[in-house]
Amino acid sequence: MPSVRVPATSANLGPGFDALGLALGLHDELDAEVLPGTLEVHVTGEGAEDVPRDSRHLVVRALAAAFSAAGAELPGLRLTCRNRIPHGRGLGSSAAAVVAGVLLGRELLAELGHGPLDDAAALELTTALEGHPDNVAPCLLGGFTIAWTDERARAVRLDPHPAVRAVAYVPEQPVSTEHARSLLPAVVPHADAAYNAGRAALLVEALTRSPHLLLAATEDRLHQAYREPAMPASAALVAALRSSGAAAVVSGAGPTVLALHVDGDPEPGDAAGFRRMPLDLVAAGAQVG
User: What domain of life does the native source organism fall in (predicted)?
Assistant: First the structure.
C-alpha cells in the first residue's frame, strides 16, 4: 500500500509572483490501496468537515489524472488522508493534494504493471491540475524553487540558507485563490514590474547566501496591495511586522502571513486573530513510502 508525505508550501514570497516557492515543515500524510469495485475516502484533520468523500475529492481527481496520463482507468480504491496543512489559507493545501494524488497514482500504476510516470511528467501533470507551478514545484522538490512554464512546466531547486526560519500567521477565515486572483489588474505600471524583477532576483541571493538582505528582497509592488481588500487584517500584519524589521509577506494568495527571520535573531511574536506557527524550511519535497 503506497503512502506519501507532502509538505506545505509558500509561494510568491513577496516579489516572486507565480515563480518562487518554499517547502515548509508541515505535512499531510496519505495512503491508498486498490479496493476493487468501490471508492472509500477517509479524511481526518484540517478541512475534514469540508472536503467531499467521493470522486470530486482533489486527491482522487489527481489520482485519476495520473491513470489517464498512463492510458489506464482508475480502479476502485481506499484513500486515507491525514491533513495538517490548513485549507484555503495560502499554504499550498491544494498543491499538496495534487502532488499526493499524482505520486500515489504513479506508485499504484507501477504496482499494476503500467509504465512509469517520470519526474518531469509529474511536474507537468501537477502544474496542469493546479494551474501554475509555484506551489507544486517546492512540494515535489523541496527547498527553495524557481518555477516557470514555456512549452512545459519547469523548475530548479536551490538550498535555502540554513539560518533562515519562518513563522506562519494563519487567520481563522480562508480566502479563495480565485477571489484573490480576481483582484489583480490585467496591466501594471512598467516601473512596478521593473521593481519586482530586481527584488525577485535579490531574493534568490537573500534566501540562499545573504539572509541579511531578506527585508529588502521581499518587497513587492505587483500583487499584495491589490489583494488588501480581501484580507485587510493580513495586510495590516504584514505592515506591522515589516516595520519591526521582519521580512513578512502574504503567503501565496493569502490570507496567511509568512515572516522570514534569521536563526538567532528574535522571533516575530504573537498576533491577535492569527494562529502563530513556527516552521522550518525543509530540504525534502514529497516522500513516497
Answer: Bacteria
